[in-house]
């Protein structure tokens, strides 16, 4: 599907969230009524480069099964999206617990991006609800916006800024004060190994560097839930290892990660929860072990998506070397 960004989305019925908006400037009535509704600060901004230097630059198993998962962090109920007569997402319902890594997998066109963008408050559902904690994303979009960090499928960035300026800009849009913006920008540049490119224009970044910068920016406001569409696409294996460790650290602090990926191996190693979506519907959902049974997730996925029958193949393809 085409890239979805906050700036080119269709207008919404309720308070619109755009990158220009600074929700911190407006008090949310829900917060006033319920002081406990304020988003938790996960303290990511206090992380120092020194502390992060102990991270091993190789992917490791999350030990997700050992992590104590908290209350329900995310609840999808009957989430449906129709484009014209086409049902891209059809009554998707499940819950994700706090501190969890949840993967959405499925073949091309299954509805993963559409689902993630509805969760993130960037694409209005045709019907159904999304709750982050006890906040209805589509009834209280500004409150939800503070709680969520989103990496869309194809992100348009302000590429005439330097990497450092970009993080500072996002931090300011997210309502951080000057000190927080400076501190977290420095911390994120070190954590995501972008220090050497901090003063280069984003337009000159490689695809992987842009992805890392975008990922860093999703964390700057210390959100409760990260919605990451293909976060490891274009990322080299060493950087992927660093990112995985950053995300594990985030989950250990109580953050919740929802990601899509075509890498079954990565989802099997990283995630404790997985939903398999085919043609807009959840075909299998639960812990990774429940879904895969006694075979690998990749084998289960192939079986679910394709069944035992194999396609005919390109028997007609003959190459001759003259
Ligand atoms: N804006 C749109 N207008 C019409 N149809 C759309 C739109 N966006 C997505 N679709 C359709 O919705 C379905 C789901 O698309 P989606 O991008 O969510 O799939 P996906 O699982 O993320 O695929 P991929 O793995 O290829 O990224 C597809 O059939 C797609 O063609």
From TrEMBL:
<feature type="domain" description="ABC transporter">
    <location>
        <begin position="74"/>
        <end position="304"/>
    </location>
</feature>
<feature type="region of interest" description="Disordered">
    <location>
        <begin position="1"/>
        <end position="43"/>
    </location>
</feature>
<dbReference type="InterPro" id="IPR017871">
    <property type="entry name" value="ABC_transporter-like_CS"/>
</dbReference>
<dbReference type="GO" id="GO:0046677">
    <property type="term" value="P:response to antibiotic"/>
</dbReference>
<protein>
    <submittedName>
        <fullName>ABC transporter ATP-binding protein</fullName>
    </submittedName>
</protein>
<dbReference type="InterPro" id="IPR027417">
    <property type="entry name" value="P-loop_NTPase"/>
</dbReference>
<dbReference type="InterPro" id="IPR003593">
    <property type="entry name" value="AAA+_ATPase"/>
</dbReference>
<dbReference type="GO" id="GO:0005886">
    <property type="term" value="C:plasma membrane"/>
</dbReference>
<dbReference type="Pfam" id="PF00005">
    <property type="entry name" value="ABC_tran"/>
</dbReference>
<dbReference type="InterPro" id="IPR050763">
    <property type="entry name" value="ABC_transporter_ATP-binding"/>
</dbReference>
<keyword id="KW-0067">ATP-binding</keyword>
<dbReference type="GO" id="GO:0016887">
    <property type="term" value="F:ATP hydrolysis activity"/>
</dbReference>
<dbReference type="GO" id="GO:0005524">
    <property type="term" value="F:ATP binding"/>
</dbReference>
<keyword id="KW-0813">Transport</keyword>
<keyword id="KW-0547">Nucleotide-binding</keyword>
<keyword id="KW-0046">Antibiotic resistance</keyword>
<dbReference type="InterPro" id="IPR003439">
    <property type="entry name" value="ABC_transporter-like_ATP-bd"/>
</dbReference>
